[in-house]
Amino acid sequence: MSANLKDTIVALATAPGVGAIAVVRISGDQALTIAAQLFRSIKGKDLRKQASHTILLGHIIEDEQVIDEVLLSLFKGPHSYTGENVVEISCHGSSYIQQRILSLAVKHGCRMAEPGEFTLRAFLNGKLDLSQAEAVADLIASDSAAAHQLAMNQMRGGFSSEIAKLREELLNFASLIELELDFAEEDVAFADRKAFEALVQRILFVLKRLIDSFAVGNVLKTGVPVAIIGEPNVGKSTLLNALLNEERALVSDIAGTTRDTVEDEISIGGIRFRFIDTAGIRVTTDVVEQMGIQKTFEKAGAAKVVLYLLSLEETANLAAVFTEIAQQKNRFPDKFVVVVLNKIDRLSEHFLAAFRDRFTTTFEGVSGLQFVGISARERSGVEALKTLLQSQVALGAIRSDETVVSNVRHFDALQQALDAMLRVDSGIKSNISSDLLAIDIKDALYYFGLITGQVTNDELLGNIFANFCIGK
Ligand code: GDP
Fold first, then answer.
1. CB atoms within 10 A of CB 321
2. Does 1.20.120.430 match the CATH number of domain 135-217+407-452?
3. Distance, CA of 308 to CA of 281 (rounded, Å)
4. Class (C level, CATH) for 9-128
5. Does residue 342 line the site of ligand 1, with CB under 6 A?
6. CATH says 223-398 is which class?
7. 243: Cβ below 6 Å to ligand 1?
8. Quick one: pLDDT at residue 261?
């Protein structure tokens, strides 16, 4: 972050391009003074004399020429998003008008804002902690109900307030231990060891829970990867199209939405599922084809869910089919495998019921293996399959108040903090000296602080805020 934070900055807060309205945002000491030079209130009011949180109707004027009729919202620091004086100009959304207002603001003394600079200032002025600031970026990027919910939780404080509290307690102990070191010759103990041990256990517990939650959080944020595997012609493309088409039909109802870039994603119950492109799998002795199959398995390895598609004739050798199913499950022991029997439109009720029974008895007690019969072509059973997919994602975790970590940076810091706390824990147990203990405690404090932003450095801030869009 090389930019001068004392500058008054300006940026377009709305998406670039034409819209009904656009918002130009100015923040900094000089926001009101600069705005007063380019804005003339209809009622002749001096905006510098207005109370915070007022809205004025007026014109943007350059060299006595009216550029647009606008609404100007006024927020006086510290009662604004950035904590500084902020002016937001809602103008008509032509690109030309936007550009004129921006350049006018620059002419009168603003600097164009860097990406994320408004939020950076909000952070530096104590309006948000670092993880809340990051949640702002997540919120803007969220494109599914689950991702939105996660970002919202985190923005409201999420787990960072919990971390900040534990850090505070740990800091207290750290200073008591430091005190002991100062009085080392006199052999006094200021820190209550029992209470300290209890705190360490509490912190370990919280850290482990948060670290575990990342598995869910990350998947909810980035989508659940799903692989569809099965021999050629079992109907993999037909199923994928059935799933995707329905989604596209839904999406294209909303005017102006294009989803060209996410061809292979669907949203079920607010959770995104990403389909991994996998080639067909067939039992073969052909070496070249086997290599292809190997690749498919590797790709499927990245999935959380494997849909193993089958299509059968009623005359099929079921013993062989069930052996093959068991083998597939063995191949993906940690994944949720759904055996999808396709083309049931060609099968009798009787056969299907018998197959289902046999499946239930054969795989009783095997976890992470389910069965569903569908006809991809006639779209029957597809809903049941979707319900099954949805039930597999631990949605409960974010529906309740349980906090979920979805940010890789937080995950890394939490793991480092856990390592340090485990060292503290074993240090206590083996009765190591206080000065050694203090080193590990400091490490842990450092990593806790990285999450909330109590410990920062320019590089860290630069990395985080450079990923924001300009104007946020
Ligand atoms: P893939 O090679 O696994 O991707 O299989 P495709 O999706 O290309 O399907 C192979 C053939 O099976 C096509 O002719 C499909 O129309 C047909 N098919 C797919 N699903 C069904 C189904 O549910 N019922 C029937 N009867 N045919 C299907």
1. 17
2. yes
3. 10
4. alpha beta
5. yes
6. alpha beta
7. no
8. 33
